[in-house]
Write a structure and sequence with these properties.
The protein is mostly helical and 144 residues long. It has one domain. It is 49% helix and 8% strand. It contains 6 helices and 4 strands; from the N terminus they run ββαααααββα. The strands form 2 sheets. Strands 1-2 form a two-stranded antiparallel ribbon. The protein has a two-stranded antiparallel ribbon with strand order 3-4. Strand 3 and strand 4 form a beta hairpin. Helix 2 packs across helix 5 and helix 3 packs across helix 4. It is elongated and about 50 Å long.
């Protein structure tokens, strides 16, 4: 998580950079820092520890990303943990439209990578954690 995040900056990049790109009809590519990805990975793994929270799970997907992004009781604590809770300070709506939309996509990306790299595994008894991290810094380092 970037402590410098604000209503006008996300992971070291000014929000205006993204809004200017959007004005030119280009989809802005928002790159979240490794620390933010590590926090997301930690939340995904925590959901796997409580499998009853995985209402969207199938044999091909643990559904943890869907639970995080579609359930307010999971989404907003994740947003706060990632220091991205600034949408209410942005009168233009760009923060919600661009940052939150990209954040939701990044949560899905982290889940795909976690499955691909073995941090999340499918077993006969269902989806489970395939790797433990000592702390969020170690999880963040996994993306470097």
């Amino acid at each position: 998580m970037c402590l410098s995040n604000s209503a006008s900056q996300v992971c070291g990049v000014e929000l205006i950079v993204y809004t200017e790109r959007e004005k030119r009809s280009l989809k802005p590519l928002i790159r979240f820092c490794d620390e933010t990805r590590g926090i997301v990975l930690g939340h995904l793994l925590d959901l796997l520890d409580n499998a009853h929270n995985l209402e969207y799970a199938t044999k091909t997907s643990p559904g943890a990303a869907d639970t995080l992004i579609k359930t307010n009781s999971h989404f907003w604590p994740l947003v706060t943990a990632c220091n991205l809770n600034f949408a209410s300070y942005d009168a233009s709506g760009a923060y919600k439209r661009l940052i939150f939309a990209s954040f939701r996509e990044m949560v899905k990306y982290v889940q795909r990578k976690a499955i691909q790299w073995g941090a999340i595994l499918y077993t006969p008894s269902g989806w489970t954690r395939g790797r433990d991290f000592a702390n969020l810094e170690e999880a963040a380092g996994w993306f470097r």
